Amino acid sequence: MQRLPIKHCRECGTSVRYRLPDDGDTRERAVCTECATVHYENPLNVVGTVPVLGERVLLCKRNIEPRRGKWTLPAGFMELGETTAQGAARETTEEAGAQFEIEDLFTVMSVPRVGQVHLYYRARLTSDVFDPGHETLEARLFHEHEIPWDELAFRTVRETLQRYFADRQAGRFGTHAFDID
Amino acid sequence: MQRLPIKHCRECGTSVRYRLPDDGDTRERAVCTECATVHYENPLNVVGTVPVLGERVLLCKRNIEPRRGKWTLPAGFMELGETTAQGAARETTEEAGAQFEIEDLFTVMSVPRVGQVHLYYRARLTSDVFDPGHETLEARLFHEHEIPWDELAFRTVRETLQRYFADRQAGRFGTHAFDID
């Protein structure tokens, strides 16, 4: 996902300049030097699931950068036209080829350093057969004691798994909103 | 917020064409016909609060389009570099000039028709003096029976207020994730 400065206007192709727009906005935006179009850049949502079959959680070994070869929960960028739950389900299908029913929203994590919000849903797997897509080297079920904590791809994944096992231990699943530096 | 098709490449200014990128992506993106830069368009987050003082909820009368003159909870587009809670607090300061302490995440609403996710936090007001910004005509506290249900600006606001009063009645506040057609 690009987060480089915008260089040219999406409307007319002329160069932009970062400045305060004329509408009272208090942030510098990329404003076209010709047609004055203002370009907004905003955080992105990453949506995914914690897919569970009985006592085991499904993790995917990444076949793409960043963190190729590390383990992750199925997740990816939310697309226009879908809900957070639909996006989470789509990513689970694409990355793991899993059969599942989506359940409640589980974590909502702001990651301001990279301009992202990550939202994970719990999902109940209905089969232990997986058909992972090209982004995944391997899809596999893990008991809690088997989780490769040192080989997880992202802190959002670790924090979500930690809360999942804690809630399961407590016998009650909540929705957890918190921030990641 | 612009959701018009992208016409020109942000990197080089050349015209783009909507097509499947060459990287296995399954969605059409705006791809530059010259430098092949792929432009992604993704949902936006709107963040806000339900500010409460005792029994009363703070609403703001909008001074901007859309829905000028209608009542809303303080909310606006999340910015890069902030968390959802920070964005919600910023909007509450900008639109109402309120003094408050932010509390737990209350609603998470997907609005796929407009490509948005709305996230509201509960907030505890610490003063009944407000200093609304230029986007707000009036900031005022409402008891539940005073809420101008027919004069609310957005369905996300109505749904959030309904759940707030229902949870208050039930004596327990949760986090509510749902979709709005």
Descriptive account of the structure:
2 copies of one chain form a homodimer. In chain A, 16% of the residues lie in helices and 36% in strands. Chain A has helices at 84-96, 155-170, and strands at residues 16-19, 29-32, 38-39, 44-53, 56-62, 71-72, 75-77, 100-111, 116-125, 136-142, 176-179. In chain A, strands 4, 5, 6, 7, 8, 9, 10 and 11 form an 8-stranded mixed β-sheet that branches. Chain A has a 3-stranded antiparallel β-sheet with strand order 1-2-3, with no helix packed on it. In chain A, strand 8 and strand 9 form a beta hairpin.
Compact overview of the structure:
The structure is a homodimer of 181-residue chains. By secondary structure, chain A is an alpha+beta fold.
List the helices and strands and how they pair.
Two copies of one chain form a homodimer.
Chain A: E1 16-19, E2 29-32, E3 38-39, E4 44-53, E5 56-62, E6 71-72, E7 75-77, H1 84-96, E8 100-111, E9 116-125, E10 136-142, H2 155-170, E11 176-179
Parallel strand pairs in A: 4-9, 8-11
Antiparallel strand pairs in A: 1-2, 2-3, 4-5, 4-7, 5-6, 5-10, 8-9
Structural features:
homodimer; 181 residues; alpha+beta; eight-stranded mixed β-sheet; 2 helices; 11 strands; 36% strand
